[in-house]
Design a protein that fits this description.
heterodimer; A: about 450 residues; Gyrase A, domain 2; Four Helix Bundle (Hemerythrin (Met), subunit A); 6-stranded mixed β-sheet; 13 strands; about 45% helix; B: about 625 residues; Elongation Factor Tu (Ef-tu), domain 3; Arc Repressor Mutant, subunit A; 4 domains; 7-stranded mixed β-sheet; 6-stranded antiparallel β-sheet; 20 helices
């Protein structure tokens, strides 16, 4: 059995870099030794109270840093094990030394991603949904992701699932009642009534599923494609937004022959912004492939930015991509006279920018964030955050659909059971005793 | 030197449904078996309602029969009204049920046992067990006579420390008119078995001659009756109808007015009763807005005027019983033969048992039936069968024989009992079976008879019959798959099929939900020569094919967890990071597999991971 599964694990809990403070977390049976061996003075601090110590390399006696030290004895800690937290100054040098010194302690190992959460889960400190929400929180680099992860922990999603769970459980209990207590005085239309309930539930769940993968998008990042004719200024726009030279920009039409992507934080949303090859008919095989990829990218993008050269005539290839999820941008407006600008302003949903001079970019960014927020709101009904949830719930609806169409009570009940089991992978298992409790509560059974 | 005449392989204590089946099974396995019961005349007695089978229970009877057990055959001989329940709801949930003539049942059971080779039956009131260290070595009768055996099966039903409640009266008894088994109860307590107390009840018995049958709705049985046993060709016992009546507002008023005199409400009864078999006083209180409750009036026999009023079990005092019963439609002038009562009895927490129903504490000692916290003749008989087989195997040095949840309702029940225990009398329901579409009453023989034949508990008759059925099934399947036609031909004939040009066999067509065998016999007249029971089987297999395929995947996953065996000497205290509650639960049921551990209520994924890790580590260091 490897250390990473049973020993003491440690990891930086904050991103490495130039931040002012860095937090390191340690969990496991030997966690206290990190204090007794590294800290000066070396006695354990009061549980859950910050205490200032000097961190010293036990081999060389060199001072590593001055740190705030927290001691969370198990099993009341986050992972259920003994936990130590060091809060040091930020910076590479301290991080490198501290991680090296910790790794040298017997029984210590650098934590695998998610290892703290997994220990917490295995020690019964978290249920699966909570564990996933925390994993999301750890990875939440943007505000929108953080808000969603927090709401899930507070249970908006849980409450929604619980509602489906309870409804399905009752339907299943009534189906089982009509099978197992055929000789009792049950309502005649019990099974038929469940069919109706199933249909309603199935519709509710399907509506939720049809949320455009909103939650997953927020978690995994939205995909935005910049599209337009060659040399309309797509790459320049990308570079302005990314504030670095991600795409090669040159005045030669057709420079971007493949899809160039950058990751951005736009108004709290994680966004993957893609620059694409200019859309035009061409004999160049490589460029043609670029155009094909651009169109494929347009197809799967959540939001499209359609860039036109304000000085050029109509661009039919770009017009064809226009829909509700697209934002129209006229670039190079610095080259236009006032009359031409005013003519373009009649198009209410269009932005007039100059990637070259930066004119109109702030307004464009505001409009883009507005469009994202309108399509992917982070308030309101709790969206699905996990592909795993979606999969389980999709499986449940498949069974619900089959159940409503079943000709035979036994087969209908079978699919309701399977639907319950699939949903239970998210909301918790339903035991036969739970069903019997409902049956004996709701029906007078007994001959 | 023990008396060789009193030396057996297996001794079964008790002649009820568990005891009879246990004794027969042990003897079929070739073990020299003694059935010891306090009274020979009551062997095979139906102490409560005179009926066998039903939903889940009927499945159990078919499974017992598939293992060549006796209950199905005896019920077929004694049945006076057969009904297949859930006829319209699909083959997987159909349960055969029969009302039985109480006397005919007893007689048939006693005859079957008398004919059983290797089986001795004696009237012995068993007082105590003989033990040798932590192994059982026999029993001691009330007169002090020792009877020695390698294994003992206790099937004492409600007799262990039985106490009858009838109004304010309390009478120690195993059944009305029979003394309780106090000595044995004390023995089990002395041996430190975890004993608890349960309750069950029975209604009054009525004189059928004084019932106004003309005021009642009558319910006949099925025609023709469907027997339990695959060995029964035809039901020859005359069939009767039952009456259906209802309680009235007056009935409910009388009961409400006298609740303070009901032992269940006065605090006189401590045992827990079954939720699915409430007394009429319970029903009136808990479902106060229900205007009437249905009652089946079931004659107890062809030449017996006693009628069993199913649905009004009670322990109210005699005068109250008489008054409320006479307020029921058709019973205005009824004469009560015997009043209803509640009975409390000792049971042993079944988590003290191994999957073979042998106790973990005492080697060679097996428990079966109500002593394990179950209720019902069928549940008792099924446990008797398993205990009988395993007692014989144990003495003969064979490997234990168990069935899992994917193989049989018997497996579901035993697993539920030994891993989860029970806090009310346990009854079988089809909803307890995860693999309900697989565990059908119609395929019990195909599921279990091959296993039973391999085990050696099947007689020549059944073997011949079963082999014949398999041959007929194979021939019918091969015929049905050889008959093929194009969609055009089928559509011309009126069988609606997608015109894709693909040839389809009769067997293929039967997998379509709306195509039935009867639709095909006109097109392929050869099919009409097949036996109806064979046709039925093929049709069910066809209709369920898609579902069975999916279920097979589930069963494979289930078996993976079952294959992860936990050592019997697992030191629960040595496993880290378990809560005190989980630790306690693991100690109580000592799961034998990881799958069984996962079915313990309250078990957490974290605890399972800890258990798995510990076992894995244990294996590595071993």
């Amino acid at each position: 059995m490897s250390v990473s599964q049973t020993g003491t694990i440690f990891a930086p809990a904050t991103a490495t870099g130039r931040a002012g403070v860095a937090v390191y977390r340690l969990s496991g049976p030997a966690a206290r030794e990190a204090i007794t061996r590294l800290c000066h003075p070396n006695q354990l601090p009061e549980p859950r109270q910050a205490s200032l110590r000097t961190l010293v390399d036990p081999v060389t006696d060199d001072v590593i840093d001055h740190a705030l030290v927290l001691w969370f004895p198990g099993p009341g800690s986050f992972t259920g094990e003994d936990v130590v937290e060091f809060q040091t100054h930020g910076g590479r040098a301290v991080a490198d030394t501290l991680l090296r010194v910790l790794a040298a302690l017997p029984g210590f190992a650098l934590a695998e991603p998610g290892a703290f959460t997994r220990r917490a889960f295995e020690n019964g400190r978290l249920d699966l949904t909570e564990a996933e929400a925390i994993a999301d929180l750890v990875h939440a680099e943007t505000e929108a992701q953080r808000k969603q992860a927090l709401r899930q922990m507070r249970g908006a999603l849980g409450a929604l699932y619980q509602n489906w769970h309870d409804r399905l459980k009752t339907i299943l209990a009534y189906c089982e009642a009509s099978i197992d207590f055929a000789d009792e005085e049950l309502p005649d239309d019990l099974m038929q009534a469940q069919r109706g309930q199933l249909q309603t539930l199935s519709t509710d769940i399907q509506q939720h599923l049809a949320d455009g993968h909103r939650g997953e998008r927020i978690r995994d990042g939205l995909s935005i494609a910049i599209l337009g004719a060659p040399n309309a200024g797509k790459s320049s726009l990308l570079n302005k937004l990314a504030a670095r030279e991600a795409a090669i920009v040159s005045p030669i039409a057709g420079t971007t022959r493949d899809v160039v992507e950058v990751q951005l934080d736009l108004g709290g949303y994680a966004v993957s912004l893609a620059d694409t090859a200019g859309l035009r008919e061409t004999a160049d095989v490589i460029e043609n492939e670029g155009v094909r990829r651009a169109l494929a990218r347009a197809e799967k993008a959540d939001i499209k930015i359609l860039v036109y050269d304000a000085g050029q005539a109509a661009d039919a290839a770009t017009d064809a991509l226009h829909d509700n999820d697209s934002l129209i941008v006229f670039n190079k407006v610095d080259t236009l006279n006032d009359a031409a600008r005013n003519a373009l302003r009649h198009n209410a949903r269009a932005c007039l920018i100059s990637a070259e001079t930066g004119e109109g970019l702030a307004e464009f960014t505001r409009l883009l964030i507005g469009l994202i927020a309108a399509r992917y709101p982070t308030g309101g009904a709790a969206p699905l955050t996990r592909a795993r949830h979606r999969q389980a719930i999709e499986e449940a609806t498949e069974h619900l659909t089959r159940a409503t169409g079943a000709t035979e009570a036994a087969l209908m009940a079978e699919d309701v059971r399977l639907a319950m089991r699939a949903l239970g992978r998210v909301t918790g298992r339903v035991d036969v005793e739970d069903l019997l409790d409902i049956i004996f509560r709701d029906f007078c059974i007994g001959k | 030197m023990p008396n060789l005449n009193e030396l057996y392989d297996v001794i079964v204590v008790g002649g009820g449904h568990a005891g009879c089946e246990a004794a027969a099974a042990s003897a079929r396995m070739g073990a020299r078996t003694l059935l010891a019961t306090h009274k020979l005349e009551t062997i095979g007695e139906m102490s409560c309602n005179p009926a066998i089978g039903g939903l889940g229970k009927g499945h159990l009877v078919r499974e017992i029969d598939a293992m060549d057990g006796v209950m199905g055959r005896v019920a077929d001989a004694a049945g006076i009204q057969f009904r297949l329940l859930n006829r319209s709801k699909g083959p997987a949930v159909q349960g055969p049920r029969a009302q039985a003539d109480r006397k005919l049942y007893r007689q048939a059971m006693q005859r079957v046992l008398a004919e059983q080779a290797n089986l001795t039956i004696k009237a012995i009131a068993v007082e105590d067990l003989l033990t040798d260290g932590d192994s059982v070595s026999g029993i001691i009768g009330a007169d002090g006579t020792p009877y020695r055996a390698g294994a003992v099966i206790i099937t004492t039903g409600t007799f262990l420390n039985g106490l009858i409640h009838l109004g304010e009266e309390k009478t120690p008894a195993g059944r009305v008119g029979d003394p309780p088994a106090i000595g044995l109860s004390n023995t089990l307590k002395r041996l430190n078995f975890p004993m608890g107390r349960l309750k069950t009840g029975t209604p009054a018995r009525l004189n059928g001659k004084t019932i106004h049958w003309d005021r009642l709705e009558m319910q006949p049985g099925d025609e023709p009756p469907v027997p339990f046993s695959t060995l029964t060709r035809r039901i020859t016992t005359p069939q009767i109808a039952c009456g259906i009546t209802y309680t009235t507002a007056n009935t409910h008023q009388i009961i409400r007015d006298n609740l303070s005199r009901a032992p269940v409400y006065s605090g006189q009864i401590e045992g827990v009763g079954p939720r699915y078999c409430p007394s009429i006083e319970d029903k009136v209180v808990r479902f106060a807005d229900k205007e009437r409750h249905q009652i089946f009036l079931e004659p107890e026999g062809l030449d017996d005027d006693t009628v069993y009023p199913n649905g009004i079990s009670t322990s109210l005092p005699r005068d109250v019983q008489t008054a409320f019963i006479r307020s029921i439609i058709g019973l205005e002038d009824v004469e009560i033969i015997r009043h209803g009562y509640a009975i409390e009895y000792d049971y042993c927490d079944p988590r003290a048992l191994r999957p073979t129903l042998e106790t973990r504490k005492i080697n060679g000692l097996f428990f079966a039936g109500q002593i394990n916290g179950t209720t019902g003749y069928e549940e008792a008989a099924a446990q008797g069968l398993m205990a009988g087989l395993n007692a014989a195997l144990k003495v003969g040095g064979g490997q234990p024989f168990t069935l899992d949840r994917s193989q049989a309702y018997i497996g579901v029940m035993v697993d539920d009992l030994i891993t989860r225990g029970t806090n009310e009398p346990y009854r079988m329901f089809t909803s307890r079976a995860e693999y309900r579409l697989t565990l059908r009453a119609d395929n019990a023989d195909q599921r279990l008879t091959p296993l039973a034949m391999e085990l050696g508990c099947v007689g020549a008759d059944r073997r011949r019959h079963f082999d014949g059925k398999l041959t007929a099934l194979a021939a019918a399947r091969s015929l049905a798959s050889s008959l093929k036609a194009t969609p055009n031909k089928l559509n011309e004939y009126g069988i609606k099929i997608n015109a894709d040009g693909v040839w389809r066999s009769a067997l293929d067509l039967l997998t379509y939900p709306d195509i039935h065998f009867s639709d095909l016999t006109g097109f392929w007249p050869e099919l009409s020569t097949l036996d109806t029971s064979i046709v039925e089987q093929i049709e069910i297999d066809g209709k369920y094919a898609g579902y069975m395929q999916r279920q097979e995947g589930d069963i494979n996953a289930f078996r993976k967890d079952e294959a992860l065996a936990l050592p019997e000497n697992l030191d629960i205290d040595a496993i880290g990071s378990l809560s005190a509650e989980i630790r306690q639960k693991l100690k109580q049921s000592k799961p034998t597999t990881l799958g069984a551990a996962s079915r313990i209520p309250g078990m957490t994924p974290a605890a399972l991971v800890a258990l798995l890790r510990y076992v894995r580590r244990d294996k590595k260091s071993a």
